[in-house]
Write a structure and sequence with these properties.
By secondary structure, the protein is an alpha+beta fold. About 35% of the residues lie in helices and about 30% in strands. It contains 5 helices and 6 strands. The longest helix is centred in the C-terminal third of the chain and has 14 residues. The radius of gyration is 14 Å and the shape is globular. About 15% of the residues are buried.
């Protein structure tokens, strides 16, 4: 966790995955900010590596599902936090190899499992 305070802002995702997911769900699920503040935070513009960016938040998508979040890299580590607003689902993952590509390895599989379990209900 001390690394995040010394790193640039992309390294600032610090904490265990369950705590990050709970924080992301509260923040991006509309339980922390006033609605107008959350709208301003999620009004993203083209840019950076993602489909949109602004106010420290990125927009990306998997299988047509829009996600808001961010990634963070440290020496030998990678962390991601994503919220899927249409499904009100937040996911945080962290692993100890910054060279692994989350798009190919983790996120799609985890989110598809969530969506499959929702369809069974």
């Amino acid at each position: 966790r001390s690394w995040a305070s010394a790193a640039w802002t992309a390294g600032a995702l610090a904490g265990d995955a369950p705590s990050l997911a709970r924080w992301g769900q509260e923040l991006l699920g509309g339980h922390i900010l006033k609605p107008e503040s959350l709208r301003a935070m999620t009004r993203l513009h083209p840019g950076a590596f993602w489909q949109g960016y602004g106010l420290g938040l990125a927009r990306d998508s998997i299988d047509g599902h829009t996600m808001w979040g961010h990634t963070g890299d440290g020496i030998g580590s990678h962390t991601e936090l994503w919220h899927v607003p249409d499904d009100d689902v937040t996911i945080a993952v962290s692993w100890n190899d910054e060279s692994l590509d989350s798009e190919a390895v983790f996120l799609p599989h985890l989110l598809r499992a969530v969506w499959a379990s929702e369809q069974r209900r």
